[in-house]
């Protein structure tokens, strides 16, 4: 399961250029959940780690399912992405970007459509298209049971 932040300013979208097994690729700030973390906390953290900017989610853009097959390694992965949109906050200029992130870049939807071969996943464009179409869902559509935020309890053990 992954999260992604779709952030737009002045008709341009914030992306990261990252090293992958298939070379440099473009993606929204995105990543996996850490243990004990909600989807919203995860997208806030991932955006900070990959862009050095704070992020305040305002809406769920959608839930997406995709499949990725690495042309170099043959790795075949199916994943679910929860994409959020919201407000980009302040930059921590001294913060180092996450391992593998080369740089951040702002691109228009047209520029993104012109380089789909550089996208990490087809979901990059799907999320931008849904953003431009005005799709938004209230954050309270997401429910996180407290057990998801607690320390792991071994199967069969009494909490």
From TrEMBL:
The keyword Hydrolase applies. Signal peptide: none annotated. Keywords: Hydrolase, Magnesium. It is an enzyme of class 3 (hydrolase). The keyword Methyltransferase does not apply. Its EC number is 3.6.1.-. Its cofactor is Mg(2+). Residues 1-131 form the Nudix hydrolase domain. GO terms for molecular function: nucleoside diphosphate phosphatase activity; ribonucleoside triphosphate phosphatase activity; thiamine diphosphate phosphatase activity. It holds the Pfam family NUDIX. Monomer. Belongs to the Nudix hydrolase family. NudJ subfamily. This is Phosphatase NudJ.
